[in-house]
User: Fold this.
Amino acid sequence: MAPAPEWWGNRVDANVPELRGMDKARQDLAQLLAASELLEPGAFSPRTVALDELDYIHEVLRSGGLRLRVEARACRELVDRLDALNRQYCAELLGRLQAGSLTPAELRAELNRHTGYTGSSTSLHLEHEPVDRLVDGMLGLGESAVEPTFYDRDYVHLEDTPVRVLLDLIDHVPLSAGQCFVDLGSGLGRAAILVHWLTGATVEGIEVQPAYHARAEALAASLGLERVHFVLGDAAQADLSQGDVFYLFTPFKGRILRAVWATLAQQARLRPLTVCTYGAVSLAAAQQPWLRPAEGRGPHEFALAIWRAG
Ligand SMILES: C[S@@+](CC[C@H](N)C(=O)[O-])C[C@H]1O[C@@H](n2cnc3c(N)ncnc32)[C@H](O)[C@@H]1O
Assistant:
């Protein structure tokens, strides 16, 4: 046999990073299997981080085929175990909230344990934290896909506001039980319900997608939330006479947004209003002459903007 050409060693070496990746995945799995603190009921955040890591580890182990099937199965079993503990944790919190043994202040303290938010939040909406999974888990969201059927060139698809941004809103916009918070483009009802849980304010969500609206309504009904209302319809034609605080996480643009600004400007002539915006819509809000940015809360694409009107 002819001697191997000089470059042959390099070709073998080219596989080494892949093998190293598998070894690393096995080591990481071994560490997580030994981390008994992950099994403590309150360890929701570290479990959530571990679950993300395990997702990746599982992918790497699976790519090892039969050679790594035992490790891949152990990984899957650990995922199921941690996932079950997280579900149980969310279900217990929800049970206590519904039974009245978890007050809004206690719920807030619980949420604070699972977020890096400490009073002001600049956050890209894709950067989700354990607190987002906690709220999703309590609301049973993220379990099954809900298909949109409404399309419009000015429509913006569903994305959730990060919980840290909603905490920022609650901390900087006084909302009491006597007030009404309106989420324009309320999706599956997550933001509206969380605001209600934490402040006691009446909330209304306006949503154009029938499937999202139905899911949000069913959720509020199943949770027995009598002061959480979801209206099915186009925000451009909605009756906005009930709100004190309006929230827009870039729900639509163009014609729809112009119609909503016009209705809100009209309402602002009748009573003082607060408008909160998050995402690109904040730049459009800055163009509205009837909106004044609250101190230090002007337009920013990745932070909550707060506007006063009237
Ligand atoms: C970016 S998501 C925001 C969801 C939620 N407000 C939140 O912050 O988590 C935008 C939502 O607005 C809804 N939407 C889009 N156009 C709308 C319209 N014309 N009227 C009412 N809702 C609309 C979408 O279906 C989607 O649920």
In short: Residues 155-156, 158-161, 183, 185-187, 190-191, 206-209, 212, 234-236, 249-252, 256 surround S-adenosylmethionine (CB under 6 Å). The chain has two domains: 8-99, 110-309. The first strand starts at residue 180 and ends at 184.
